């Protein structure tokens, strides 16, 4: 696949024709498996190949280039080293270009086992709720199985002889990369996670982000938290943290555009208080009842915004302008000039509350926090429940 090209005419923000690029890439798990296979083949044949074929978790077979291959021996026995460089395609990924590195050691008389370890740059799990052993490497279950299966196939002659293979995955610079992720919030410290349920990273992939939202709620629940605060990004999260300082950091989850994934997980985990922090655009999308609030999915409901503006006393000519405007921000800025910011955001928040209650029923209490574009609280609306 090759990157797309923008059309010469003006394209609106929400227009599906807007160029995003469409070249897929590979997950950290897929590259880790490729490096592990190459190092294992180095032990089998005495030389690390320059390319290997791996089976991905989705059962596709893919060829990966390998660098820095070498075989040697030290006091610990025979060892091999290999690197597979991650190409994330057109997906904006903190781990693009990462050197997924495998060091494989042959353990004489080990009983034909494949042992998987994490090295420098791979995070260490420090909190429950991830489905991984505390104190162990942040190598998720699917890539863990996939790496082991590929190594078992490549190292069959060694394993059949009764020796074991110890695989250590490391990522130079992984600790710095992890600072651009939510790993620390999830209790994964010191590096990145080795991820990938299919092995493929789709351009502007939603699957990975959606999975991280679910995981974050699970972690909060496993720590005994009964409240969760969903925000749409960094500014709204800072706004919510200022507004709800009594809550533990684990309660704050950046759901991005994934309203349905966030709420269904929170309801499933029995969260008693669900708080949403959003700015005017996402607040409107939530009030519309959208499961995913991304601009590509559905345009903003101008009639809904205009109705809220009229309700709080905006003059008819301004309501007409708002109905014709392309963004919710236009309404927020114009109404702020009239001193109607709090009333307008309250009206939107009440609409969002009603929509969320209807779509995600349960015994939980709902609160909506409206923030301005600088991440400052405007108004908090709590559900009026008996």
Percent strand? 15-25%
- Structural class by secondary-structure content: alpha/beta
Percent helix, as a range, is 25-40%
Supply Rg: 25 Å
- Number of helical stretches of at least 4 residues: 13
Distance between the first and last residues' Cα: 56 Å
Q: What is the CATH T-level topology of the largest domain?
A: CbiD-like
For the biggest β-sheet, the strand order reads 4-5-6-10-7
Tally of structural domains: 2
How many β-strands, per DSSP?
18
Write the layout of secondary structure elements.
Layout: E1 25-26, H1 28-45, E2 51-55, E3 61-65, E4 67-74, E5 77-85, E6 99-107, E7 114-118, E8 121-122, E9 124-125, H2 141-154, H3 156-160, E10 164-170, H4 174-178, H5 183-186, E11 188-189, E12 191-192, E13 200-201, H6 207-222, E14 227-231, H7 234-243, E15 252-254, H8 259-268, E16 273-278, H9 280-287, H10 302-311, H11 316-324, H12 328-337, H13 341-359, E17 365-371, E18 377-382
Parallel strand pairs: 7-10, 8-12, 14-15, 14-16, 16-17
Antiparallel strand pairs: 1-13, 2-3, 4-5, 5-6, 6-10, 9-11, 17-18
Helix pairs in contact: 1-2, 6-8, 9-13, 10-11, 10-13, 12-13
Task: Describe the fold and architecture.
The protein is of the alpha/beta class and 386 residues long. It folds into 2 domains: 25-201, 2-Layer Sandwich (CbiD-like); 207-382, no CATH class. The protein has helices spanning 28-45, 141-154, 156-160, 174-178, 183-186, 207-222, 234-243, 259-268, 280-287, 302-311, 316-324, 328-337, 341-359, and strands at 25-26, 51-55, 61-65, 67-74, 77-85, 99-107, 114-118, 121-122, 124-125, 164-170, 188-189, 191-192, 200-201, 227-231, 252-254, 273-278, 365-371, 377-382. The strands form 6 sheets. The protein has a 5-stranded mixed sheet, covered by helices on one side. The radius of gyration is 25 Å and the shape is elongated. The N and C termini lie far apart (56 Å). Residues 1-20 have low confidence and may be disordered.
């Amino acid at each position: 696949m090759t990157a797309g090209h923008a059309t010469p005419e003006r394209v609106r923000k929400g227009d599906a024709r807007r160029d995003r690029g469409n070249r897929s890439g590979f997950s950290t798990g897929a590259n880790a498996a490729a490096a592990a296979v190459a190092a294992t083949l180095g032990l089998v044949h005495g030389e690390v190949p320059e390319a290997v074929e791996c089976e991905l978790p989705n059962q596709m077979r893919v060829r990966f280039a390998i660098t820095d291959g070498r075989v040697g021996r030290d006091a610990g026995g025979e060892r091999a080293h290999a690197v597979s460089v991650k190409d994330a395609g057109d997906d904006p990924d903190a781990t693009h270009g990462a050197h997924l590195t495998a060091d494989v050691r042959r353990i004489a008389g080990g009983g034909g086992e494949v042992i998987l370890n994490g090295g420098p740059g791979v995070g260490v799990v420090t909190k429950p709720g991830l489905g991984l052993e505390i104190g162990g490497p942040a190598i998720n279950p699917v890539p863990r199985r996939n790496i082991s299966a590929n190594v078992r196939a490549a190292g069959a002659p060694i394993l059949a002889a009764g020796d074991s293979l110890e695989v250590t995955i490391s990522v130079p610079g992984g600790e710095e990369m992890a600072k651009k992720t939510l790993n620390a919030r999830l209790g994964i410290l010191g590096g990145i996670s080795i991820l990938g349920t299919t092995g493929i990273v789709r351009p502007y992939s939603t699957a990975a982000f959606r999975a991280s939202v679910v995981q974050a709620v699970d972690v909060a629940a496993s720590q005994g938290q009964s409240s969760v605060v969903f925000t749409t990004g960094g500014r709204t999260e800072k706004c919510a943290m200022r507004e709800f300082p009594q809550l533990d950091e684990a309660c704050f989850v950046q759901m991005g555009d994934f309203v349905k994934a966030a709420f269904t997980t929170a309801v499933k985990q029995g969260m008693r208080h669900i708080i949403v922090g959003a700015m005017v655009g996402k607040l409107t999308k939530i009030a519309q009842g959208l499961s995913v609030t991304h601009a590509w999915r559905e345009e903003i409901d101008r009639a809904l915004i205009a109705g809220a503006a009229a309700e709080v006393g905006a003059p008819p000519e301004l309501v007409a302008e708002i109905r014709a405007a392309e963004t919710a921000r236009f309404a927020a800025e114009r109404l702020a000039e009239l001193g109607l910011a709090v009333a307008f955001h309250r009206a939107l928040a009440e609409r969002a509350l009603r929509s969320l209650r209807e779509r995600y029923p349960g015994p939980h209490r709902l609160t909506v926090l409206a923030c301005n574009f600088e991440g400052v609280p405007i108004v908090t609306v709590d559900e009026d429940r008996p």
